[in-house]
Amino acid sequence: MKKDLPENKVSGVDVAVVLESDSPQGKVWNVYLINEQKAELQNVLVSSKGYGVKDSREVKTTTLRHFLGDVLAQSAIKIEAIDTEVFGLTNEYWVSYYVDNVMYDKKYIFLPESIVDENLIKTPFVGKPGVMIGGQN
Questions:
Q1: 24 Cβ contact partners less than 8 Å away, ≥ 6 residues apart
Q2: Residue 132: partners with Cβ closer than 8 Å, 6 or more residues away
Q3: Torsional sign, CA 37, 11, 67, 86
């Protein structure tokens, strides 16, 4: 059955953990959905969760669901704030959306300790440093 479904490849849709500000009080991080396509994404739904091992015990965060509505072509939209306490966990974002009445979905996974200064780049359409996973199948 699954082999009969069309394989809709995701490209040009990214998820980035962005450093919004860095002050003596601490760093503020947010997660963004970045649409690099020339098409609008419609009915965007993002599910996020974290899981892994911390202090020798298994940890799971609450699964959050975010309905973002439509995301304009070549733009970015904030999904959620993220706490540095979960950077040691696997952080998973499952993104689903429609383009021209065709459904697309992709899982983006930030591995433990991957959100570090060495991996920061300038994120498109946000213009701030962040760690980005591109939607290339």
A1: none
A2: 14, 15, 16, 17, 34, 121, 123
A3: negative
Cα 98 to the center of its chain, rounded Å: 17
Sign, Cα dihedral of 122, 36, 84, 109: negative
Q: How sure is the predictor about 8, in pLDDT bands with cuts at 50, 70 and 90?
A: confident
What confidence score (pLDDT) does residue 137 get? Answer: 44
pLDDT digits (tens, 9 = 90+) for 9-21: 889 999 999 999 8
**CA 116 to chain CA centroid, nearest Å:** 16
The model carries a pTM of: 0.91
pLDDT over threshold 80, residue 89: yes
Token couple for 6 = 């069309």
Domains, the chain, in order of start with CATH, read 2-110 (2.60.40.10)
**Whole-number pLDDT of residue 6:** 64
